[in-house]
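Attaching the record inline, Q. Sequence:
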Amino acid sequence: MDKKKLDQIFGKEGSLSNGVYKISFPRSEQIKENGMVIPPSMGTSTAINFQPTGGQNAAITGDFVLTAEEVNSVIRVLRKHDIEVEAVHNHMLFEEPHLLFVHFWANDDAEKLAKGLRKAVEKTNSKLPDKD
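Structure, as predicted:
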């Protein structure tokens, strides 16, 4: 697994922690719960993790933070790239906009998976280097 190639695919720098590549994409809009702003670091960012599994392969897991309108298009992209959807659920009750969390999993070529994940992130209102 090549960190520099993953950074290039995602268009920004991820981090390595104990061999796990981590990258996140905060939502572009402000998220509030009961009128209080919830910062991206408090669980309102899409989080993606890569654990090397040998050669160029990696197991990936994480969750997309989505509005209801984004769920189907993100799931379609994930499935198209052989990334399994593990769960779809909410974490909060009164946040605005209402968010759903789509958890995913796969184990395959890291660059192939990164390209699929990047395409899925592009279907969201997340902050991307190319969009902002």
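The beta strands are 15-17, 20-26, 32-33, 36-37, 45-54, 57-66, 84-89, 95-96, 100-109. Helices lie at 3-10, 68-80, 110-121.

More tomorrow.
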